[in-house]
Amino acid sequence: MYGTEQIISGTIIAGPEILPIEGYICVKNGIITEIGEERTNSKNIIAPCFVNAHTHLGDSVCKDPVLGKTSGFRVQRDLDSLVKPPDGLKHRILRETPYKTLVGHIKRSLLDMIDTGTCAFADFREGGFLGVAALNKALEGLELRSLIFGRPAEPDLPLQVVLSEVRRILLRSDGLGMSGANDLDMNLLQEITACTRERKKLFAIHAGEKNRSDIEKALSLEPDLLIHLTHAGKKDLDEIAQAKIPVVVCPRSNFVTGAGMAPIAEMLEAGIRVAAGTDNVMLNSVNMFAEMEFMSKIFSIDDRQVFKICTLNGSFVMGPDSMCSIEKGNKANLMILNGDSNNLAGIQDPVGGITKRARPDDILAVLHS
């Protein structure tokens, strides 16, 4: 309760190095006021909440579509037919979905985020001004930190009409999030980027998801954030690292669409700040436990690094207000897990155990500030 002090005991996944310590946390008015080390009988594991750094929540109206044509025992996947604007499946469905229905489905996904331990998210919001308004409406009354990237609904209209809508979108969003540099005329993208900069908002863009042909174009726009980079090469990664642009990877989504696997280890080696997101709700739930387990078991990356990608690293995308590391003076964005659940009992390393096997039903409580 606001104004009262809470004391939570257990094994704490503490600090930027996420080192497990046995002890207690004091929380007052949503702020961590003390972290103490002492022996405790508690089986609780106190961990930072997730940051889901890339979502498409409008897709909540169309879950688990057929991915493509079936040939024998195989499904031939076609990424463009699913998500490419303006006529990909999801865009056709979004155009036909009433506003009230869209808000309701987005809210269900936001509640699912809260239930599964996420405290902050970044969304690429299709549908122009109304799409952004729908997400803002769905967020009312919920304790979630959001970063909303809008985009114009009809980019093929005359330039001044498009820019007029962009200006309206920027009044209600944190910036612009575009689908890819190959999807729009570069002159239009440059105008949109300039408009975004003038209003001191963020510019983000998908790149290198289907192939690497749009990476150089995307980089020429000097974005604040890049998504996917599934097909990035060493030269691309070095340039991105030098420009200090954070990258959000979406491993489950890239796997299910057949886009390939992002070179996450190489990104980290190059010095890129990497966060993770669940991407399109129509293909994946917003459950970051599933994203973390998938990444841990598919990529040759240390469990602690995977854990940081799905939690603390999201602050590079979301900003300092979303900092979820457990440190004195930080906001209390915590998951309290039952370390004695049938699933987690017996794990040897709390970070590795959570990364590889924890599930939403292991959560005892979530604190958002």
Automatic annotation (TrEMBL):
Gene Ontology molecular function, alphabetical: diaminohydroxyphosphoribosylaminopyrimidine deaminase activity
Keyword Hydrolase: yes
Amidohydrolase-related domain mapped to chain residues: 45-341
EC id: 3.5.4.26
SUPFAM superfamilies the record matches: Composite domain of metallo-dependent hydrolases (SSF51338), Metallo-dependent hydrolases (SSF51556)
Family annotation (InterPro entries): Amidohydro-rel, Metal-dep_hydrolase_composite, Metal_Hydrolase, MTA/SAH_deaminase
Enzyme class, spelled out: hydrolase
CDD domains: archeal_chlorohydrolases
Record-annotated membrane-spanning stretches: none
Assigned keywords, A-Z: Hydrolase
Record-given protein name: Pyrimidine deaminase archaeal predicted
Organism name: Methanosarcina mazei S-6
Taxonomic classification: Archaea, Methanobacteriati, Methanobacteriota, Stenosarchaea group, Methanomicrobia
